[in-house]
Write a structure and sequence with these properties.
mainly alpha; two-stranded antiparallel ribbon; about 5% strand; globular
């Protein structure tokens, strides 16, 4: 399993970096759309849509919506992103109250299917706009999620005592979360210096990054909730050693709307 994870990462990481930095935004958005469609296919399976034709129809519906948005010049993109941010704010409030019960597994299937369009749609829209601003911002955002997760893992291993969300992810601890935030703060300081920002802009950039890191944890927990409700360990099998696409992008789909909206708001103040 570890060998598979390493080999998959060695293939995917260079491809991801090259796609982010060297593809023009229209091409990047199409590649990202393909990833989101695979995520939609997996999401359908996790929410009880098992027949391949219906899962294909489910994913195609998302694809048609996003293609329409792209072809019409991304009109309404800011509204889509703001709605996505509103959803993640709601998730922050509601997820702590989640409890696994003996109720039928299909209790949340219909609303979760509808939420897919909002979550994956707003993430795709946010990443496309962010790439238009600067592809390096996209790379930074990906690094932010990885840093939050990696630093939290090692901090949790070393100091973790208090569970963060035992119903959803027994391995996550509050100490790990704090370690992740420290790692993200350091990364944000370096990135602010790299982007040549002023002192005030760096302060805002660090604060935005910390908020985004918190939301990345929520994204991880939300996908964990969907898998727990469906009784699945992984969202899929397409990535050897890693599971499915949703297993890899769970935190990224949450961070994109929040970070992009925060960056657009700050640039709006300066313009």
């Amino acid at each position: 399993m570890l060998k598979q994870r390493i080999l998959t990462a060695l293939v995917l990481v260079p491809l991801a970096i090259a796609s982010i930095l060297f593809l023009p935004t229209p091409w990047f958005s199409w590649v990202l759309l393909g990833i989101m469609l695979i995520g939609a296919w997996e999401w359908a399976g996790l929410t009880g849509v098992q027949q391949p034709p219906y899962r294909l129809l489910f994913a195609a519906s998302l694809g048609l919506l996003l293609i329409g948005l792209r072809l019409y010049g991304m009109q309404g993109a800011h509204t889509v992103i703001m709605i996505g941010v509103a959803w993640w704010v709601m998730a922050v409030i509601l997820l702590p109250y989640y409890q696994r019960t003996d109720l039928p597994e299909h209790r949340w299937q219909l609303p979760l299917r509808l939420v897919m369009f909002l979550v994956l749609g707003s993430a795709w829209t946010a990443y496309t706009l962010l790439h238009q601003l600067n592809p390096e911002y996209v790379l930074y955002l990906v690094m932010l999620s990885i840093m939050a997760d990696t630093a939290a893992y090692f901090s949790g291993k070393a100091f973790g005592k208090n569970k963060l969300a035992p119903e959803l992810s027994p391995g996550k601890t509050r100490e790990g979360l704090l370690g992740g935030l420290v790692g993200v703060a350091l990364l944000a300081l370096l990135a602010g210096w790299y982007f040549g920002q002023s002192v005030m802009a760096i302060v805002y950039f660090v604060l935005l990054s910390l908020v985004t890191a918190l939301v990345s944890v929520v994204g991880d927990l939300f996908i964990s909730m969907i898998k727990r409700e469906s009784g699945a360990k992984d969202s899929g099998w397409i990535l050897p050693g890693h599971g499915g696409i949703l297993d890899r992008i769970d935190s990224h789909i949450a961070t994109a709307p929040v970070f992009t909206l925060g960056l657009l708001w700050w640039q709006g103040l300066l313009s």
